[in-house]
Design a protein that fits this description.
six-stranded mixed β-sheet, binds zinc ion, six-stranded parallel β-sheet, 34% helix, alpha/beta
């Protein structure tokens, strides 16, 4: 019995042999009827019915439901390919929460894990475990540069790697891709990756390219040196002859705000010269972390360093306290407001707060016109950088937020272009021919949503609140979400097969 037939015909479980009309040999067919189809291509919406057989879409168009066939009424709703999240941090959480409620509730049907240089290892074991205990959604995995680097260099990683070490790392990449990984990820702002020279990434990326993988990078700097860091990512693509995905593209300090055009120009130039560079972007202008991350040189009691750190984020008004054990009364106030109340400078307040045990804060360090400019580029996809249990609203809100705010309310994008950025665009990056599109022969990964009500509800104070307006989510032909709760089905596969 297929997962789809289990999901759709509860009677099977009870009186299987007696009443169920379909057999194992002929997968049950059913139809989604009356909806407006956004097929992933970005072309206009069109009224069409969609027929599914087993785990495949078999017809899209003027198909009439057959007698006795189950029909899902999608009148007034949009029917689209399931969303593909190219940057997701649910690597380990899936084993605890295989229903992945906060993910499927957004319409996500496939996630790519192993981002930012950190991945499971060995790849074959991770995928085998997922095949044995499937999740509700499909999973693909990247080989992490930092994960490999630690295996080769151990604790002695705070230096550039020698050539013999680089050769060993490249050999491990060459194990990971045939074992099922789809590319190489890196995180150059994080501790392990930050010590690596460009040539190390080039050699590892060459190894990934030999197996048809792509290179995905949290680049070396997302602040004052953003453009240099983007140029380095492009150079790695050029030298290793590999497609490049810039993760969560952003301009995160005052010195580079409102300069998206500079990034766009340098990426467009690279694309014209034949480097296949694309990017993903999450729809939020703020991050969530500890107070101390604001000061990169870690001199938290040095007034000059703290002053510079606050200036970098545009001032103390852009930092909001989310949680502070020693001073609950600070919560949801900005550093500027707290300092004013106390009659001290924000710098003095910062130093005092660190001494009192620190706090978790929300840093509003991106500006909306840059986010909009990035989203307007056809080579920028929607990616969450989120995942199960994340304490940032992007973990449960990214995809409905783009559809609700950027499409419906602010008209930054057409609905079908936004859907393309969530479906065909990432599927093309992964070279998946049968995902991210709603057409005969494609996998039956489908989301049905209400374009009038789709909306994120997660916030910094309630980061796992579920969105509204996502009515049905289908993975490989089986329902995983019915508009208010997960179905309990686990039809997810590991991709590529
Ligand atoms: Zn990252």
């Amino acid at each position: 019995m297929t997962a789809a037939s289990r999901a759709l015909v509860p009677c099977v479980l009870i009186v299987a042999v007696i009443v169920c009309p379909h057999s194992e040999a002929a997968p049950r067919t059913w139809t989604i009827s009356g909806g407006e189809v956004a097929d992933g291509s970005g072309g206009p919406l069109r009224r069409a019915n969609v027929r599914i057989a087993g785990d495949r879409i078999v017809a899209v168009g003027d198909v009439k439901p057959e007698a006795g066939e189950m029909v899902v009424d999608a009148k007034g709703l949009v029917v689209a390919p399931g969303f593909i999240d190219i940057h997701n941090h649910s690597t380990n959480e899936l084993t605890k929460d295989p229903a992945a409620e906060t993910q499927v509730a957004q319409g996500i049907t496939t996630i790519v894990v192993g981002a930012d240089g950190s991945s499971p290892w060995p790849i074959a074991d991770y995928l085998a475990e997922l095949r044995q205990h499937p999740a509700a959604l499909n999973v693909a995995v990247m080989v992490g540069h930092a994960t490999i680097r630690r295996r080769v260099m151990g604790d002695d990683y705070k230096r550039p790697a020698r050539d013999d070490e680089i050769a060993k790392m490249a050999a491990l990449v060459e194990q990971g891709l045939p074992a099922g990984a789809i590319g190489l990820s890196s995180g150059l702002e994080y501790v392990v990756g930050s010590y690596s020279e460009t040539k190390e990434f080039v050699e590892m990326a060459k190894a990934a390219a030999r197996y048809g993988g792509f290179y995905m990078s949290h680049i070396r700097d997302e602040a004052d040196k953003s453009f240099e860091a983007q140029r380095e990512a492009i150079a790695i693509g050029e030298q290793a002859k590999i497609p490049v995905q810039i993760s969560h593209i952003k301009l995160g300090t005052a010195a580079v705000w409102h300069k998206a055009a500079t990034s766009i120009e340098l990426i467009e130039k690279a694309r014209r010269s034949g480097v296949d560079v694309t990017a993903d972007c999450y729809p939020y202008d703020a991050w969530h972390s500890t107070l101390t991350v604001l000061v990169p040189n870690k001199r938290y009691d040095d007034p000059a360093s703290v002053e510079r750190a606050l200036a970098d984020v545009g001032g103390a008004a852009n930092v909001t306290v989310d949680r502070m054990a020693a001073h609950p009364e600070y919560e949801f106030k900005t550093l500027e407001a707290i300092a004013r109340t106390k009659g001290i400078t924000p710098v003095a307040l910062f130093i005092e707060m660190v001494k009192e045990g620190g706090a978790s804060v929300i840093g509003k360090t991106m500006v909306e016109d840059d986010i909009r400019a990035f989203y307007e580029q056809p080579w920028v996809m929607v990616g969450s950088d989120g995942g199960i249990g994340l304490r940032h609203p992007r973990g449960a809100g990214t995809f409905p937020r783009v559809l609700g705010r950027y499409v419906r309310e602010q008209h930054w994008l057409s609905l079908t272009e936004a859907v393309r950025k969530m479906t065909l665009a990432p599927a093309t990056r992964m070279m998946w021919k049968d995902r991210g599109r709603l057409e005969p022969g494609a996998a039956a990964d489908i989301v049905v949503f209400d374009p009038k009500t789709v909306q994120d509800r997660s916030t910094f104070s309630d980061p796992t609140a579920l969105p509204t307006g996502v009515e049905k989510v289908i993975v490989n032909g089986a329902f995983v979400w019915d508009g208010s709760k997960p179905s309990g089905e686990r039809p997810g596969k590991t991709l590529p097969k």
